[in-house]
Amino acid sequence: MPRAxxxxxxxxxxxxxxxxxxxxxxxxxxxxxxxxxxTGAARAAEGVQMRFRLLWxxxxxxxxxxxxxxxxxxxxxxxxxxWRYDSPLAHWGLLRSERVQTLRRLPNGHxxxxxxxxxxxxxxxxxxxxxxxxxxxxxxxxxxDALSSS
Length: 150
Description:
Layout: E1 3-11, H1 15-23, H2 28-31, E2 35-39, E3 49-55, E4 61-75, E5 78-85, H3 88-91, E6 96-105, E7 111-120, H4 129-149
């Protein structure tokens, strides 16, 4: 059975500003408490590979290799950015996942942000989903803070 992590928040910023924050990997270290560094790509673009440095337990870090699968810039009040897990475990068919982040313009000009990642495969049972969930929630709150302070 697949396992999933999901977070939602209403961001008090226009869709275009939220999208720019989301695709600017070079800035993640300044505002993102979950993905604290990205190497391999400065911006999200379909097909690019990157390595995320994630804050783990007790101040330790882990790395996650990812590949951008979709980038849909703002159009008709919506946008989307997605990437998939791209490590040896994925290549061997043991763990597959795609993180999909959607943006939707609200009538008041704010933006609804949703992020979800579903984990599949034999190794999915070992993914610390509660930790991923907490990271998604922390990132969503930090997005709001970063957008309101700029």
